[in-house]
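Run folding on both entries below.
>entry_1
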Amino acid sequence: MNLEFADLAKKLGAQEQLVNNTLLLEIDNCVIQVKSNSDKLLTKLTEYFGHVVCTQGQADLTILAIEKPAVDLALPFKDWQREAGKTGRKDSYYDLAEARIVHKVKTGMCFMQSETVKLASGPCIKNDNQVINFINSQYLNWLQQQGWQNCHAAALERNGQGIAMAGFSGGGKSTLMLHLMELSGARFTSNDRLLVKSQGQQTIAKGIPKLPRVNPGTVVNNPRLKSMFSEQKIAELQSMPLAELWDLEEKYDVFVEQAYGPNRICHTTPLKAFIVLNWHRDNTDRMQISQIDLTQRRDLLAAVMKSSGPFYQYNDGSFYQDSTELNEEAYLQALHNVPIYEASGQVDFAALVDYCDSNLLPVE
């Protein structure tokens, strides 16, 4: 550990006194240990990750989450280039020889990523969602280092078979997934990140333990979720013009087992179908769904692929760059066993749910 690395780690709280409690998470066959100087933070994380909390196991990954005021490291941070369609500053970063520091512009949170230290530092309790994302990013790294491809997709499982759904920004993949959760036997797999890998004659999909995050429009149009808001807020939202409600950028966590009941989560499933939502709310044509050849429709592949982001560290210790081009062939190979469908025309969740129920995930 060189002097700059050690100094930055110390400033971020790597040597802080930790509480006795630790949090153990078991996701598939990966065990993640979270240590902190804050019992309150660990309690919040335990509540969030409740369905994957375990009581014993040898940790594959250890993460430090240090609650403290935001630290000004006075580093020449460089802005991380955002994906097409995204605006505003979000992440900045600084690379050392063996580590990367990621700074969250809006919150002041800082994260140190290296092969030996994985550290979240700053007002963690106030920004627990960023700590949750950092924890999930370590599981994403663990899988990607084993050859899994990172998809920008939601997914669920029914009767031992999975269905994934991707879409361009605002396409409604999370809303569709929650509508599909109303089907008997359906179990949540993932809301926004899905890892896929071809194994033999099938493709396996793995979700991360991140709860669905939905916009207000999804909540007010889903009877099961309306209890998340007060009657007054529901009335206010329903009085808004539809286009304004659709574009409202607020996010709320849906605690799946509270909303849908126990045993409604399954993070690993063989993938039977993949739907790309290429519909639009301004389109008046009837919704159509058709099977496509993704090798001939690489315009739709763009909706499936997802950047590994600033936290991704390769097996050799080097870091992913924002200029790195996504490997289309790797995605096509991972999905070559899976029928791909395009939904086009107008947005019609009910019709697409009926199609999935009857044709893609029928009851045994």
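>entry_2
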Amino acid sequence: MKAHHLALSSLITLSFFLAILPPSYCTDDARFVDCSHPYECGRIINVSYPFWGVNRPEYCGRQGFKLECYDDEYPIIKFEELEFLILNINESQNNMTIARLDLWHGFCPQTYLDTVLNYNIFDYAPTVLNITLFYDCPLAVSTLIPVQNKFKCSLEVHALNESLNQGFEVDYDALHVACRWCVESGENCGSNVTYQFVSFCRNGERSYNCPGNNMYSLFSS
């Protein structure tokens, strides 16, 4: 009888403690949480890997894809000394439309620089055509230029500004297949301290897909 009362008392005491103790939850890896947040600036929203910047730490993207925000309207990406406004990002096609910031309000910058891409991760899209403009040419050269290809700055300057402000398309290498597998298995794409592609799972970093996905592979940036 005493043993029965003792067991009942222990059970009541255990139930009491279980009732007053707060429930415990598993904490997700901080990098998994950070890389869940998309990059947003103006009308460019819901941008993820390989881009990073502002609210997305560097490990959420790749080298060469850092973004800043210009006047809360357009993201800016930097190639060497030049800054480019990003007018559009098509993540499904891995390309974006960019325009040189120094030519945004006119085509007479203080410093003349060539447009140079990092061809390891960027390339001109097939839609881009190269047009060369000559101005202030000597008479001997001017006579060699067909009449239909000549223009007067006073008349064409506005049309030229519009063309520059429309920007041009570039393709970028996003390790699309690797990241797609990563996202489909509930992970977030990112990179480690050596800038290799990794998956951020809820419980940490892996260089392959997280447990539970049958597609395991190694990728490097």
